[in-house]
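Raw record, unedited: IS66 family insertion sequence element accessory protein TnpB
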Amino acid sequence: MLVNYHVPKHVYIVCGNTDLRKGIDTLAILIADNFGLDLYDDSLFLFCGRRNDRFKALYWDGEGFILLYKRFDNGRLTWLLT
């Protein structure tokens, strides 16, 4: 049930701050309505909160959605966009 990060065709980073209290349904609606992307197109969506020490990822594995949550104990996440 874990995500093989080499498998998704697309990885999208949702820019800006996302309220990380949101669950699967609300994050899915955010992607579909605001960005017009297909949630079932083998894509991984990354969301960052206001604090840079935590993020969420949403992924459809063919059977259902997986919602991953990561919080760094020591340090912060730095988004490097090139």
